[in-house]
Specification:
It is built from four helices and five strands. It is an alpha+beta fold. It has a five-stranded mixed sheet with strand order 4-1-3-2-5, with helices on both faces.
Length: 137
């Protein structure tokens, strides 16, 4: 089965508490397990950055559903390409709240979110490609 990787960024409509993020994480893990989707969600400064991995048609439907979620706005896809393997295969959904400043790769992830918000590249690479490289290493 072929898989795609979809990366999007969006802005929270309000500051998310730790409890809000835990609820999003729990719901995503349960839903993604049923539809063969893996990935990771990053939150910082009112912005979400999420990687989703799975069959292209499944990701398309899932993103359409996510895009309608009233907890965020200004969602835009940064990357949606076929992949030879899953970068986040261990997780139906991983969650990293960068506001607690204890995340692995903290500085790199902040740079990725900042670049994605500003629609700029990191070196010669897009923020989404940079994000995927961070976790492939």
């Amino acid at each position: 089965m072929s898989i795609n990787q979809l990366v999007y960024i969006s802005q929270a409509v309000r500051k998310m508490s730790a409890e809000d993020l835990q609820a999003i994480h729990a719901k995503a893990r349960a839903n993604n397990e049923l539809i063969d989707v893996t990935g990771s969600l990053f939150y910082n400064g009112g912005w979400f950055l999420q990687v989703l991995e799975g069959p292209a048609a499944t990701l398309s439907k899932l993103y359409d559903k996510i895009d309608l979620d009233p907890r965020h706005k200004n969602s835009r896809v940064l990357y949606n390409e076929p992949a030879t393997f899953r970068t986040f295969s261990r997780w139906n959904m991983n969650m990293t709240n960068l506001e607690d400043r204890q995340a692995d790769k903290y500085d790199e992830l902040l740079e990725v979110i900042d670049a994605a918000r500003g629609n700029r590249k990191i070196g010669a690479a897009s923020p989404a490609v940079t994000l995927l490289r961070i976790f492939k290493e």
